[in-house]
Amino acid sequence: GFFMQTSEMLRKICMRNLVRKYCRGLTAERKAQLQQKVVTSAVFSGKKEGYLESLSQPFLETRLKENDLNPKVLQLIRGENIKYVTPVIKYDRNGFKARERLLVLTQSSAYVVEMAKIKQRIEYSTLKGISTSNLSDGIVVIHVPEDNKQKGDVILQCEHVFETVTKLCILANKQSVVKVVKGSLRFRVGSGKEGTMVFTVGPEPQVFKDKTGQLTVV
Fold first, then answer.
1. What is the top-level taxon of the source organism (predicted)?
2. Which residues, in sequence order, are CB contacts of 111 under 8 Å at separation 6+?
3. I need a surface site. Which of 1, 19, 91, 136 has the fewest CB within 10 A?
């Protein structure tokens, strides 16, 4: 009994040292990867299609460099540390027109940017929720509070959905507000109105407004 306990203790100590050594040998980049992937796992594992395939793909620090941004935009968000930039497709809340935008994440806010204009700014402190579907689409809805400053929730399609959502919830420190939904999801259009988005499976991926006025994501 005593020897078993001792060897068990030694095994634990040895294990701890190995882990510590391993961690010390990790580059900052590798460490950041692991920390991010742990969050991705907590949020998506077993819930969203494509999660397992995403495991082997390392997250990039950013998809676009700071100097890919328009100087005007850089001036408007100067003083805020830019952490991540990625191209996105934004769907209008009303007619669901698809528009090419950039999503810029700083240490304090998320910005939806069109060329030289900031279309929407969401301070992380006010962020109410982040929704994605359980299917393999790249749709992300950022839910914002109902106030005069915000035009409504933001509907985006992201090519690297796991990466983008992980960066967003780590920077905003709001892992708990990410929801993976099945079937359909409600979003706020602004001025008290709501819209519905429906997720279905089909032969080819598409996003369109159906006859009932809903945004259908296939």
1. Eukaryota
2. 73, 77, 102, 103, 104, 105, 118, 120, 121, 122
3. 1
C-alpha Rg value of the chain to the nearest Å: 21
pLDDT at 27: 86
The DSSP call for residue 81 is P
pLDDT in tens, 81-112: 999 999 999 999 888 999 999 999 999 999 99
Q: Tokens 């397992």 correspond to what residue?
A: 52
Report which of 180, 187, 215 is spatially closest to residue 200, judged by C-alpha positions: 215
Residue 61 has what pLDDT?
Answer: 95
Distance CA 84, CA 102 (A): 10
Predicted confidence (pLDDT) at residue 58 exceeds the cutoff of 90: yes
CA distance 82 to 105: 6
Residues 131, 182: Cα–Cα separation, whole Å: 10
Cβ atoms within 10 Å, residue 116? 13
Q: Between the CA atoms of 153, 158, 163 and 169, what dihedral angle is there, to the nearest 10 degrees?
A: 0
Write down the domain spans for the chain. Answer: 2-217
- Higher confidence at residue 94 or residue 143? 143
pLDDT at 22: 78
Query: 166 CB contacts (<8 Å, ≥6 apart)?
Result: 36, 37, 39, 40, 43, 59
